[in-house]
Amino acid sequence: MTRDEAWRLLCEYTQSENLRRHALAVEACMRYYARIFGEDEELWGVVGLLHDFDYERYPSLEEHPFRGMEILRARGAPEVIIRAVGAHANHTGIPRESLLERAIFACDEISGFVIAVALVKGRTLSAVTPESVRKRMKEKGFARGVNRDDLLQGAEELGIPFDEHVEHVVRALQGIADQLGLNP
Fold first, then answer.
1. Apex CA 129: angle with CA 128 and CA 130, to 5°?
2. Are 67 and 54 in contact (CB under 8 A)?
3. How far is it between the farthest Cα atoms of the chain?
4. Which residue intervals of 121-161 are DSSP H helices?
5. Distance from the CA of 116 to the CA of which of 93, 135, 147, 148 falls in 20 to 30 A?
């Protein structure tokens, strides 16, 4: 599946600009990590774009991402993509066995959290530090939908210290800051 095909599928199922931006953010993080690990940047980027493509239509834990996996399978997507989409969330029960699967889990929630921190820091990603992320993680009311344990678990599963993970995510997002409505 090409990036263009993935983008069209995302746009077919996702009308929300915020959800599309989230997909772009996760794609950027996945591509960044693919370069670090010497992996297939296109494949990793496609997984980043598609991990939540079904969420707007099927937001319940019973349906997301299972419906998306069915749609991908029906459209002939490679099993490696389908499995990674399924493994991106703990509630699916799909064990993360590959580096790709661990990376999509690690990039999903942290990308949104880093963006939320940037928004309160004048929409500027360069103002986001590991310390500012850790500080906000302690505030229960800040980005309350983000499971703090998942943020830490993602870095741990990648084998990267949390602070370094935050720095990687910030750098990845700086590359697409304009598309996210942020300053680098």
1. 130
2. yes
3. 44
4. 130-137, 148-158
5. 93
How many beta carbons lie within 10 A of that of residue 55, not counting itself?
20
Kindly report the number of other CB atoms within 10 A of residue 4's CB atom.
9
Predicted TM-score (pTM) of the model is 0.96
CA distance 95 to 8: 28
Which of these, 65, 3, 68, 60, lies nearest to 31 by C-alpha position?
3
For 159-167, the CB contacts below 8 A with 24+ separation are 160/106, 162/130, 162/134, 163/130, 163/134, 164/130, 165/106, 165/110, 166/110, 166/114, 166/128, 166/129, 166/130, 166/133, 167/130
